[in-house]
Structure formats: structure tokens, C-alpha cells
Amino acid sequence: MATFTRNEIEEGRRRLGELAQTKGLYIQLTLVGGAVMVLRFNARPSTKDIDAVILQPREARLVRELAKRVADEFEWTEDWLNDGAKGYLVGISEGQVIFQAPGIEARSPSLEQLLAMKLSAWRDDIDISDARRLLQEVGQGQKRDEVWQSIEPFLVKGDELTAQYAFWDLWETLYGTD
Known about the structure:
The chain is of the alpha/beta class. The protein folds into two domains: 4-109, no CATH class; 112-175, no CATH class. It is 49% helix and 15% strand. It has seven helices and seven strands. It has helices at 6-22, 34-39, 60-74, 111-121, 125-139, 144-151, 160-175; strands at residues 4-5, 27-32, 46-47, 50-54, 81-82, 97-101, 104-107. A five-stranded mixed sheet has the order 5-4-2-7-6. A two-stranded antiparallel ribbon has the order 1-3. It is elongated and about 55 Å long. The termini are far apart.
């Protein structure tokens, strides 16, 4: 399985922005998942793909075509940039700009939304490690119930109980009982 390092992600997004500019397009993305953990937190060296939401739905087809061109040029899989994580998004909060270049801008959602997504997914050691890192960012200096209330609106319906147990377990590991 191919993975993408910080440099490869940056090369791909730079090239995507260049291609967008030639079409008179300015791509706006919200990145989630592993790409955010690599780019914003240096939490791991690579990710298997770049999960993104294209914020201009009318341009989505063209953005996918340009992403395919990037994949061909770099000999990457066609799904290097994909919206596979959108099932874990409950709305889209506006977080920090992760990168901006001619033709493209990418943000992350709020830390609370990222944490809610990881707690809702809770599939493997990578999700657990990512959630732990995010909880360190969100929970510092706060009470458990305050943090829970800040992430609760972003939980995927049907995954609330799993997320709650995961949250409590991580909280106790990091901060003890509250």
C-alpha cells in the first residue's frame, strides 16, 4: 500500500493548485484524517491517502479530474485525494488553514470536530493514537465534561456510545478521573 509523506502531500497539493490555476479555478478543501495528523501535528510520518471535502460542490468533478492528472504525473493511485471520510463529518467547522498556494487552499476542521471524527471511527491503533493526540490539544486545562460537550455536536449519529466510551477511556489515560 502506498503512503504519502509530508513532502509528497505538499507536492501533490502544489501541483493540484497549479493545474487549477490554468483552469481559472481556486480549489478550497477541508482536509480530515491522516493528512491533518501529518501536516498540522507531525503526529506520524505518513498517511495512506488524503481525505478531503471539496467545498465547492459545483467544481467537484473538475477537481477530481485534476487530481487524477496529478495521480498520473506522480504515478499515484487515483484515489490519493478522496472524500472517503465524509461519512464521519457532521457539518464542516472552520479550522486552521493548513496550506495555501496559488490555486488552492486547504483547512482542517476544528480540533473538536477532528476529535469527534476519530472517536466515532475508532477502528484501529492509528485512530486511537490520533484521538489521543487530539485530546491532548483539546483537553489541556479543561474539565472532562466541558470537552465532551464541545465535541458532542460533531459525533456521527449511531456512534455516540462508542465515541463516549472511547473518550472516557482516553481521558482517564491522559488526565485521570475528573
